[in-house]
Amino acid sequence: xxxxxxxxxxxxxxxxxxxxxxxxxxxxxxxxxxxxxxxxxxxxxxxxxxxxxxxxxxxxxxxxxxxxxxxxxxxxxxxxxxxxxxxxxxxxxxxxxxxxxxxxxxxxxxxxxxxxxxxxxxxxxxxxxxxxxxxxxxxxxxxxxxxxxxxxxxxxxxxxxxxxxxxxxxxxxxxxxxxxxxxxxxxxxxxxxxxxxxxxxx
Length: 202
Fold this sequence. Notes:
Blueprint: H1 2-36, H2 39-46, H3 55-63, H4 67-75, H5 82-91, H6 94-102, E1 110-111, E2 114-115, H7 127-136, H8 139-143, H9 147-154, H10 158-167, H11 175-184, H12 188-197
Antiparallel strand pairs: 1-2
């Protein structure tokens, strides 16, 4: 009986040591993949049994501006903070952004200083990104974040502004906040979109 107990204990210890060794080896390989930005190797490792994405891996990829690795990590269960997602969305190409959204990344994201949508309106960015976001985002989010409209004005993105205002509920559009900015920026087409929505200039 005594030997049976000892055998069981030794077996458990062996399994534990083997498991720790396996996990350690996989972690080292992930670190190497992130250092070399080898997303193919990274994806292969993450497909292996008992390999779960660790928060520090995602942090490292974000710090290195390594969008492809972030995508792979996210698709395998990694998590981004709202701040990280807003930051990365601005850096991504449309194809990368679309891939993130298809993987489940939320669009109704905001932090005290900004929303994800506000970072997509630059005329230097690909318009397909904000178009995709507008199509998929809940209108309720637009209704509770009127600052999104104002950012479109500052970025001079008439197409995005017009699309936004058409999607928002008429009674929610913050005309008193938006109108002065539109006038100041001399955005005639935006003013016309507001009038079409129901705004009456004073």
